[in-house]
Amino acid sequence: MTEFHWGKYFTRSEFQCSHSHTCEMNQEFINKLNKLREEYGKPLIINSGYRSPENPIELVKKTPGAHTSGKACDIGVSRQDALKLLELAIKLGFTGFGINQKGGSRFLHLDTLENSSARPRPTIWSY
After folding, report:
1. Each residue of 16-45: pLDDT tens digit?
2. Which of 71, 57, 63, 67 lies closest to 19 in space, CA to CA?
3. Residue 6 and residue 67: Cα distance in Å, rounded?
4. How, if at all, do strands 96-100 and 45-48 pair?
5. What is the DSSP string of 46-107?
6. pTM for the complete prediction?
7. Residue 110: CA count within 13 A, CB half-sphere
8. Residue of 47, 23, 31, 42 whose CA lies nearest to 93
9. Which residues contact 108 (CB under 8 A, 6 or more apart)?
């Protein structure tokens, strides 16, 4: 089995499931996230990375969400920084963009899911 590489900017603990402590992130996603961080030029605060299907957040959904694929994360960012990060993420080929820019927990969800009938990509939504 090939060794997993977190790259220059990230660690496993930032992405592990808060419920199960497992961490099944996708290597290509982490590589793309490192490229995004490099181009952004500032630290990225990972609010949520991998979620096991048994995570209470996932259990209330009809089907497990993007975070269970290991190809998604939520990044704590707001205002002009959120716009800059979104522009870079689009340029780098991320495919799913969830935006929460109200209240105390402002973040940008990014994923690299493939287009499917269940989850059309590319797409954008708000929380």
Report:
1. 999 999 999 999 999 999 999 999 999 999
2. 57
3. 17
4. unpaired
5. EEE----TTSHHHHTSSS--GGGGTSEEEEE--HHHHHHHHHHHHHHT--EEEEE-SSS--E
6. 0.95
7. 27
8. 31
9. 74, 75, 77, 82, 85, 86, 89, 97, 98, 99, 100
Strands of 96-100's sheet in order across = 45-48, 72-76, 107-111, 96-100, 123-126
Q: Which of 49, 39, 68, 53 is nearest to 10 (CA)?
A: 49
The model's pLDDT over 67-96, given as tens digits with 9 standing for 90+, comes to 999 999 999 999 999 999 999 999 999 999
Q: Are 49 and 15 in contact (CB under 8 A)?
A: yes
